[in-house]
């Protein structure tokens, strides 16, 4: 069958369109576009069904596994597909790896090396036990994140735009250095022993709970990488939609209770607001998807992210 | 039919805009007078009172945006007002040594002309319901020159104030303290300078877009 490819402005994107066998899938179409254009590899392509002009509907994205016949317009007797270039893409694993590598390397630099002489302080410095536990706690956290990236997470999309690498790395690396500077400072004032133990203990419990949450989320999805959404259940997911974010936030709270820096608390507030935004989107999407109609289950009443607040 | 609330809103905004217009008019007048009679070193002293008043009054605009009294998004008014207040209070008012610099003159004149046009434009629209097309043109064209002159003056003044900032140790909070927090106004000033690097082209491009929209819209009418 002939596939006509247009850009979002309506111009023909590939002159004369592409000829594909009737049994071809969307994935085959993506390959054909890539072969023809040489520049737009499949993960860069966003292929949608054209919407009538003036329509407010969100365009339907072609599913790479479906066959082209499913999108063939019988009335008009043709298949028109709208193409959008998503820009250079990077796999999520690559993105996460580099975001987390920064804090993993930069923080210990402030702990182990005489960095503070560059800020005008002398070289002698007393290292408090809390500072030592903090560097281990921090590095454990980011090592855990890297391990989860490669061995646990199942991503709903394979890739992310390249520009996100710069934005995300700036966020993690700058905040990581900002916190590391204060916790390892020669003039650092430690909190009491009990407060430190409560902070790290609570934080560790939350980190392990967070790992368990990630494992539960992974098992919700099909190993073949088809993504999709299910109602999460089990463990904390029975009472809160984004239990993984909940445990992550409380884990940072534990770290801050133990280390007590304004920098750490600022990071906690920013991270919480970002995750709350994501959690609201996810919660709303699940409620919309699982509306109880046509045999679909109804999404149960649950906290969004932070009981008892939201 | 205009409801009582609409009338109240227009009355309030008219008074606000024309009042601040008068403030900035005073700034321009006194600046040019001082420049002619005494030289650029004396411009700040001549304009200080109306400048501090008119610039600080702009904080109201954030409130106006938040409560929906005006359409402008808070996200674009906040950085603009932030940088103005930083220069006015955080540099000029805080560090008297910089007040005699010639860039104060270019700063004050750039700001005053821009604000005179802007506030009278809004004053006209709120009070009379329209503004003549030449006024619209001025509002969306003078920035082409005044933004570069204004921004260069801002950046220059922050830069030349740096030695005074460092020496005075003003607004600094030092370690050790139980919250393990510190703030160094000198490094914050350097960070502010850094923000101008991506911030200025972004703002200028935004204004160019606004200009295109506003001037083409008026052509269609």
UniProtKB/TrEMBL annotation, chain A:
<dbReference type="GO" id="GO:0006665">
    <property type="term" value="P:sphingolipid metabolic process"/>
</dbReference>
<dbReference type="Pfam" id="PF02544">
    <property type="entry name" value="Steroid_dh"/>
</dbReference>
<feature type="transmembrane region" description="Helical">
    <location>
        <begin position="126"/>
        <end position="143"/>
    </location>
</feature>
<feature type="transmembrane region" description="Helical">
    <location>
        <begin position="94"/>
        <end position="114"/>
    </location>
</feature>
<dbReference type="InterPro" id="IPR039357">
    <property type="entry name" value="SRD5A/TECR"/>
</dbReference>
<feature type="transmembrane region" description="Helical">
    <location>
        <begin position="262"/>
        <end position="280"/>
    </location>
</feature>
<feature type="domain" description="3-oxo-5-alpha-steroid 4-dehydrogenase C-terminal">
    <location>
        <begin position="159"/>
        <end position="309"/>
    </location>
</feature>
<dbReference type="InterPro" id="IPR001104">
    <property type="entry name" value="3-oxo-5_a-steroid_4-DH_C"/>
</dbReference>
<protein>
    <submittedName>
        <fullName>Trans-2-enoyl-CoA reductase</fullName>
        <ecNumber>1.3.99.5</ecNumber>
    </submittedName>
</protein>
<dbReference type="GO" id="GO:0003865">
    <property type="term" value="F:3-oxo-5-alpha-steroid 4-dehydrogenase activity"/>
</dbReference>
<dbReference type="GO" id="GO:0016020">
    <property type="term" value="C:membrane"/>
</dbReference>
<dbReference type="GO" id="GO:0005783">
    <property type="term" value="C:endoplasmic reticulum"/>
</dbReference>
<keyword id="KW-0444">Lipid biosynthesis</keyword>
<keyword id="KW-0443">Lipid metabolism</keyword>
<feature type="transmembrane region" description="Helical">
    <location>
        <begin position="164"/>
        <end position="183"/>
    </location>
</feature>
<keyword id="KW-1133">Transmembrane helix</keyword>
<keyword id="KW-0812">Transmembrane</keyword>
<keyword id="KW-0560">Oxidoreductase</keyword>
<keyword id="KW-0472">Membrane</keyword>
<dbReference type="GO" id="GO:0042761">
    <property type="term" value="P:very long-chain fatty acid biosynthetic process"/>
</dbReference>
<comment type="similarity">
    <text>Belongs to the steroid 5-alpha reductase family.</text>
</comment>
<dbReference type="GO" id="GO:0102758">
    <property type="term" value="F:very-long-chain enoyl-CoA reductase activity"/>
</dbReference>
From TrEMBL, chain B:
<dbReference type="InterPro" id="IPR007482">
    <property type="entry name" value="Tyr_Pase-like_PTPLA"/>
</dbReference>
<keyword id="KW-1133">Transmembrane helix</keyword>
<keyword id="KW-0256">Endoplasmic reticulum</keyword>
<feature type="transmembrane region" description="Helical">
    <location>
        <begin position="12"/>
        <end position="32"/>
    </location>
</feature>
<comment type="function">
    <text>Catalyzes the third of the four reactions of the long-chain fatty acids elongation cycle. This endoplasmic reticulum-bound enzymatic process, allows the addition of two carbons to the chain of long- and very long-chain fatty acids/VLCFAs per cycle. This enzyme catalyzes the dehydration of the 3-hydroxyacyl-CoA intermediate into trans-2,3-enoyl-CoA, within each cycle of fatty acid elongation. Thereby, it participates to the production of VLCFAs of different chain lengths that are involved in multiple biological processes as precursors of membrane lipids and lipid mediators.</text>
</comment>
<dbReference type="GO" id="GO:0042761">
    <property type="term" value="P:very long-chain fatty acid biosynthetic process"/>
</dbReference>
<dbReference type="GO" id="GO:0102158">
    <property type="term" value="F:very-long-chain (3R)-3-hydroxyacyl-CoA dehydratase activity"/>
</dbReference>
<comment type="pathway">
    <text>Lipid metabolism; fatty acid biosynthesis.</text>
</comment>
<protein>
    <recommendedName>
        <fullName>Very-long-chain (3R)-3-hydroxyacyl-CoA dehydratase</fullName>
        <ecNumber>4.2.1.134</ecNumber>
    </recommendedName>
</protein>
<dbReference type="GO" id="GO:0030148">
    <property type="term" value="P:sphingolipid biosynthetic process"/>
</dbReference>
<dbReference type="GO" id="GO:0005789">
    <property type="term" value="C:endoplasmic reticulum membrane"/>
</dbReference>
<keyword id="KW-0812">Transmembrane</keyword>
<keyword id="KW-0456">Lyase</keyword>
<keyword id="KW-0276">Fatty acid metabolism</keyword>
<feature type="transmembrane region" description="Helical">
    <location>
        <begin position="101"/>
        <end position="121"/>
    </location>
</feature>
<keyword id="KW-0444">Lipid biosynthesis</keyword>
<keyword id="KW-0443">Lipid metabolism</keyword>
<keyword id="KW-0275">Fatty acid biosynthesis</keyword>
<dbReference type="Pfam" id="PF04387">
    <property type="entry name" value="PTPLA"/>
</dbReference>
<keyword id="KW-0472">Membrane</keyword>
<feature type="transmembrane region" description="Helical">
    <location>
        <begin position="185"/>
        <end position="204"/>
    </location>
</feature>
<comment type="similarity">
    <text>Belongs to the very long-chain fatty acids dehydratase HACD family.</text>
</comment>
């Amino acid at each position: 069958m002939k596939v006509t490819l247009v850009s979002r402005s309506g111009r023909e994107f590939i002159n004369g369109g592409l000829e594909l066998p009737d049994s071809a899938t969307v994935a085959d179409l993506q390959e054909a576009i890539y072969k023809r254009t040489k520049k737009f590899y499949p993960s860069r392509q966003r292929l949608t069904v054209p919407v009538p002009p003036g329509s407010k509907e969100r365009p339907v994205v072609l599913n790479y596994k479906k066959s082209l016949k499913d999108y063939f317009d019988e009335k008009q007797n043709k298949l028109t597909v709208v193409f959008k270039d998503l820009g250079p893409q990077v796999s999520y694993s690559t993105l996460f790896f580099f975001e987390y590598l920064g804090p993993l390397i930069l923080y210990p630099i402030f702990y182990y090396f005489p960095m503070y002489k560059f800020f005008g302080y002398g070289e002698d410095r007393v290292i408090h036990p809390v500072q030592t536990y903090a560097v281990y706690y921090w590095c454990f956290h980011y090592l855990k994140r890297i391990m989860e990236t490669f061995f646990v997470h199942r991503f709903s999309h394979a890739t992310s735009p390249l520009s996100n690498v710069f934005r995300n790395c700036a966020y993690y690396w700058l905040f990581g250095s900002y916190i590391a500077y204060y916790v390892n400072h020669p003039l650092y004032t430690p909190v009491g022993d009990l407060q430190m133990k409560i902070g790290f203990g609570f934080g560790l419990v939350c980190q392990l709970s967070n790992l368990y949450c990630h494992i539960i989320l992974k098992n919700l999805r099909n190993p073949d990488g088809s993504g999709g959404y299910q109602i999460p259940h089990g463990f904390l997911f029975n009472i809160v939609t984004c239990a993984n974010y909940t445990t992550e936030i409380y884990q940072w709270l534990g770290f801050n209770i133990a280390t007590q820096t304004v920098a750490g608390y600022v990071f906690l507030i920013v991270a919480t607001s970002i995750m709350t935004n994501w959690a609201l989107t996810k919660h709303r999407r699940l409620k919309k998807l699982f509306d109880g109609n046509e045999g679909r289950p109804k999404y149960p009443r649950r906290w969004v992210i932070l009981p008892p607040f939201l | 039919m205009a409801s009582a609330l609409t009338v109240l809103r227009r009355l309030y905004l008219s008074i606000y805009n024309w009042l601040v217009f008068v403030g900035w008019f005073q700034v321009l007048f006194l600046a040019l007078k001082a420049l002619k009679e005494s030289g650029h070193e004396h411009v700040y002293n001549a304009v200080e009172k109306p400048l501090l008043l008119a610039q600080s009054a702009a904080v109201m605009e954030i409130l106006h945006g938040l409560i929906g009294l005006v359409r402008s998004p808070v996200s674009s008014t906040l950085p603009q007002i932030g940088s103005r207040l930083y220069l006015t209070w955080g540099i000029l008012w805080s560090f008297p040594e910089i007040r005699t610099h010639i860039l104060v003159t270019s700063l004050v004149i750039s700001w005053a002309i821009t604000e005179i046009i802007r506030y009278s434009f809004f004053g006209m629209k709120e009070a009379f319901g329209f503004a003549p097309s030449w006024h619209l043109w001025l509002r969306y064209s003078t920035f082409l020159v005044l933004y570069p002159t204004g921004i260069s003056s801002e950046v220059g003044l922050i830069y030349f104030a740096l030695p005074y900032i460092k020496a005075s140790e003003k607004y600094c909070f030092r370690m050790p303290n139980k919250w393990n927090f510190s703030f160094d106004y000198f490094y914050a000033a350097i960070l502010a300078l850094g923000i101008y690097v991506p911030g200025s082209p972004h703002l200028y491009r935004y204004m160019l877009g606004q200009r295109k929209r506003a001037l083409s819209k008026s052509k269609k009418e």
